[in-house]
Every structure is written in C-alpha cells, then in structure tokens.
Specification:
The chain is of the alpha+beta class. Helix content is 26%, strand content 35%. The protein has a single domain, classed as Aminopeptidase. The longest helix is centred in the middle third of the chain and has 15 residues, at 110-124.
C-alpha cells in the first residue's frame, strides 16, 4: 500500500508528512534556503535554494509513485522534508532514509517525530526489512535523532564523502524491522 496525493501521515507535535504539491514552493524556499541547513545534506540539496529549485523539486515529485519524498508540514507550511531512497535488486527490502528541517524548527522534537513516522511507514506500508542513514561527521543532532528513533550505529566510513572541499567520515546508522519499537 502506498501514500496517495491526499493521504497524510500524522507526525505529532502539530506536524504531518504529505506529498509535495503545487503551492509549497514559497514555504519550501523559506525553510530550505539556509546554509546551516544545507551544510549537512548532500550536494544535490542546493544552496542557495531558489524559487526555481523549489519549482523543480515539486514537479519532480508530482508523478513519483509510490510517494517517497514527503513534505514536513506545520501550520500549513512546508518546514522540511523526509523520504526514502528505495533499494533495488537484492536490496529491494532496504531503503535509505533522509530528513531535514528549517532552522526555525530545530530543537522542538519535530525531526524525531517525523523520522519516527517515516520509519513506521517504511516498515508497515512498504514492507521494508531494513532502513538506514548516513550522517556526516559533526552532525551530532542528526545522530541523536536517529538514536532516539531506535537506529543503531553500525560503523563509520572513513573519509568517504567530499563536502565543502573536505573529506568527511560518514556515520552509518540502521534499524531492522525486528528491532523496531512501535
């Protein structure tokens, strides 16, 4: 079973996950256009984050089925995003998770609540057996979010990412369905 365009995943704390849609662009730019947000994300998350970037992202997601990239919505505005990169072939029951929040919403428990909902959705609705995430060195807040959601540190890939002109260690976290607490 997959998320339809009008289905929402309740996150709690007044937030929810839903498909990106036309009209999200303004709040998406407001939340995403921050160097501090982009610092710990992959380079495909642009900085500066422009109107054109937001239009392109909403259009890219319009026809994706199943929905794999979700807007984190709070008070009608997009304040971040969360999603899956589903594996294929022998990795078809695994998915990488990712998430980000606009800085104005940090420290309120929303990232943890969103990842908890996304994790539940991955296991219960998509039949995933394993979910995982990589975190750049220095991003202690994201490591705490993963740990609060039951993900365990599985290892460190030394100097495996080039970000901002520096090679960084990537901390690899994972959770399997049997370890998931509902």
């Amino acid at each position: 079973m997959v998320v339809s365009d009008d289905e929402v995943i309740e996150v709690g704390l007044g937030a929810r996950l839903r498909a990106f849609r036309a009209g999200d662009e303004r709040s998406l730019v407001r939340a995403a256009n921050d160097e501090t947000v982009a610092r710990y994300l992959r380079d495909r998350f642009p900085h500066p984050y422009t109107w054109e970037d937001a239009v392109g992202w909403v259009a890219f997601n319009r026809d994706l089925r199943p929905v794999c990239n979700f807007a984190i919505e709070f008070d009608g505005d997009v304040i971040g995003g969360a999603g899956f990169v589903f594996g294929d072939d022998v990795h078809r029951f695994s998915a990488e998770v990712g998430y980000w929040l606009g800085r104005a919403h940090w420290g309120k428990g929303l990232a943890t609540a969103a990842l908890t909902a996304l994790t539940r959705h991955g296991f219960e609705r998509h039949g995933m057996v394993r979910l995982f995430a990589g975190v750049f060195e220095g991003n202690a807040a994201s490591m705490r979010v993963l740990e609060k959601c039951g993900y365990a540190l599985e290892g460190v890939s030394k100097r495996s990412a080039l970000k901002g002109g520096r090679f960084l260690d990537v901390y690899n976290y994972g959770i399997v369905r049997e370890e998931y607490r509902r």
